[in-house]
Amino acid sequence: xxxxxxxxxxxxxxxxxxxxxxxxxxxxxxxxxxxxxxxxxxxxxxxxxxxxxxxxxxxxxxxxxxxxxxxxxxxxxxxxxxxxxxxxxxxxxxxxxxxxxxxxxxxxxxxxxxxxxxxxxxxxxxxxxxxxxxxxxxxxxxxxxxxxxxxxxxxxxxxxxxxxxxxxxxxxxxxxxxxxxxxxxxxxxxxxxxxxxxxxxxxxxxxxxxxxxxxxxxxxxxxxxxxxxxxxxxxxxxxxxxxxxxxxxxxxxxxxxxxxxxxxxxxxxxxxxxxxxxxxxxxxxxxxxxxxxxxxxx
Length: 298
Hints:
Layout: E1 10-15, E2 18-23, E3 44-46, H1 59-65, H2 75-82, H3 88-92, E4 94-99, H4 107-111, H5 127-140, E5 152-155, H6 158-166, H7 173-178, H8 191-211, H9 217-231, H10 261-271, H11 281-284, H12 286-297
Parallel strand pairs: 3-4
Antiparallel strand pairs: 1-2, 4-5
Helix pairs in contact: 8-12
């Protein structure tokens, strides 16, 4: 049997020249996800600011703002360009490396320039106000704070960063726990109980939602409504008291409990599972509990 890395994985893709097939497991093929912030989605790594003050002297960003193309960017010119349809998206997705603003020790190196009158700073700060600012920064500064990061590190536009990661649809343990009500027709469910149940099934639910395209908000709402109803808020993944039912042994199992022989047969055929498959795994195994439910949904 071939090692997994050597198994060809052919995918049909669109490219500038048309449509073609690419072996994703070939040694010379690089694979990226949205979490890699690929450049073709507008992300830029900006790491060419030579000095260590708080002003931007990046040639990359200055090039975006330089309307006249003369290598100089006047304040008015920069302001005019920042909100244009071509520049604003670039600035929003610029990942820039510069010194932290939370280090009191580097205050003077970063901000001493504001005491000097220049084109970009026509109203310099006097010494008294500069010292007031220093005291304010010192009161807020926490660097390094045990984070283990270098003083110069990467910074994102927070709004863009959060918006980008919201697209992943993967709910955290806390987020999923908050979807289980403390009070319901099924009785009181303490936070600790809800958390324990979610800890067991969170990965299975997230993988099911992602695999079967159920993780957009409207579908997630319906998915949770059905899973909560089927399982009693994740209390049971096997239909209680049904072993004597006329459709036994094909009673309800899973996060969305499939029932009757035809549903079990369809799932076994979908997964290419042998006839000797232990159907109890649909209730007990996290993969099959979620996978069978997503399959039934679609």
